[in-house]
Design goal:
Blueprint (H helix, E strand, L loop, with lengths): L10 H8 L3 H9 L12 H10 L1 H8 L16 H16 L3 H17 L1
């Protein structure tokens, strides 16, 4: 990560920087991602929270638990779980059928890989 990733940002700034939905960022914060007094969080802390708390995020989103293979020493295997969760969440939450279809297609391809 870069030094800039440690600067606290607003929900809108994180969504723009990561090119994801504002609702996705809010879901992670609602699941317990730590924020400062101004409700800002660094991208580093946001990503680490997701990697270590994917089941909390899935539960809050109404999604079933999935297997995560990451450990305290190596969280990289949890990246697939985060991507899968975000894509499943988009299929439920998006109001645009094209987004739902694209999210399902990508999710199916990711799950077929591993």
């Amino acid at each position: 990560m870069q030094k800039a990733d440690e600067q606290p940002m607003s929900i809108d700034e994180i969504a723009a920087r990561l090119k994801c939905s504002r609702g996705w960022v809010q879901l992670s914060i609602d699941a317990g991602c730590p924020v400062d007094a101004d409700r800002r969080v660094s991208i580093r802390d946001f990503m680490l929270f997701q990697l270590t708390n994917i089941q909390k995020i899935r539960s809050l989103a109404g999604l079933p638990e999935i297997e995560t293979l990451g450990t305290a020493k190596d969280l990289r295997p949890n990246v697939k779980a985060i991507l899968t969760t975000q894509l499943e969440w988009l299929q439920i939450r998006s109001t645009r059928s094209a987004v739902k279809t694209a999210a399902k297609l990508v999710c199916d391809r990711i799950n077929a890989v591993g």
